[in-house]
């Protein structure tokens, strides 16, 4: 299924490549004889404005797994896959208000560095290794594979050459210039990404509308693929390809209300709050307020993303199923062989670009896809280098390393990680929906990430041993659940793992009284206020738990057991708040943050309320 670009397409695409490389290398330049400092290379010298933070966050996040993978899931499942985008918008509000201010206040470079400050080097190293493995063997490989799949489908470039080409393209400026080059090129990449993506969606809807406009296209899309506009999927409702020629229940990937009340929150809070290549953009902001505003801006861009990356997949489904191959051949003026078909869900977006986007505009649309791929690869490479250099090389191999040595090691690590990704990426070709592969395998670490980082940020009781054993138990617990119940949806499995990890962390923390010290409690008035909030969360937790126990037998097909995760989360927040207010003992390295850090002004609050309202309305109208 290939169709070469026209000359105009190549001109547009080459112009894009020249603009990005030129900008990246220009930003990367330094004065003659002056070496980049580690802060310049790894944190862009803390120079990013709010709009640069927001744009860079989205550029790092939106990649081939969205344009190709999420469109593929849109083709197979429908709009329900947008839960990852829309719940992320709400998660960004939480991260902006409560998580990021503490990280910036602590002046850290990496997430493992925070764990070292809060706990010890063992906990820090455990998570550094976790992230390195995920970045190299899951993120870099999947993004480069999906991007190369698009190049193979649209341009006829062999898969392996496409993988190598994309990795090299992202390496040229990211390895040389560091985060500053990555972040400022991301601002331009987002323009290509959003502009080209919206144009592709417009053309897809126009095609579905048979030339009567995008509103007719939307109407036809809804009428002809009504089952694809269900936001909450019950068991047994939708079946999708399993990648081996058979079918599987879409409930396995998106189990009912788990996308709203379940471990989707662990995925989003872990990804947006504690994931190095994402949060690193916020750490590089000029100030805490700039960082907060940048994350809010990113939240609104996330609301927009399903229009760009999911709707085209549904449009491809309608176009392919509403017409016979012969009818499509007449409509497009091509032979049936030239049009091709969609053998795998992840081929939906390339198929759409090839057949329904005209010459010239196809080059722009593919530039948008390339922008998403290259920006994400560049961010991942930079963060891989940052974590290895600052959390493994510096403390274990050369504690007195100069900035020059740190930057050099970072560049070497980046090259090695790209080489590994180039070798591993082709092995993903057997999968039908790579986006779900990414979610499932990163899901093995996110319950532990959220438990350890969340408690480390806000709970004075959690100890280093509790954090370490929670980290150690994370992956084995996920594997055990997978072995015991292989048919359990991974979002539900993540919820149960999170509950177990909360119990482990709590039991060890309360048992280790000998390592704790006496610390002053908050003023009496603040104690009462914090304790009052804790009672609210205790009540919410108990009510949610009882609802799960009562309704799970009858409504298990709606994933109602996801309420157990929510109950555990509420109860854990209640425990944290109550013990912080009432227990005079705390871990020696516990964080006591100034409440002023969490203040947000009226514009931020109004913006946050707008995000919640928009998403609430979407789910209200498209629940079934």
TrEMBL record:
Chief location bin: membrane
Gene3D superfamilies: Sodium/glucose cotransporter
Transmembrane segment boundaries: 6-27, 48-69, 75-104, 125-147, 159-176, 183-205, 254-274, 295-320, 364-388, 409-429, 441-459, 466-484, 490-511, 532-551, 563-581, 602-622
Domain of life: Bacteria
Keywords of the record: Membrane, Transmembrane, Transmembrane helix
Pfam families (UniProt xref): SSF
Topology of the protein relative to the lipid bilayer: Multi-pass membrane protein
InterPro entries reported for this sequence: Na/Glc_symporter_sf, Na/solute_symporter, Na/solute_symporter_CS
Compartments, record wording: Membrane
Family named by the database record: Belongs to the sodium:solute symporter (SSF) (TC 2.A.21) family.
Name of the protein in question: Sodium/solute symporter
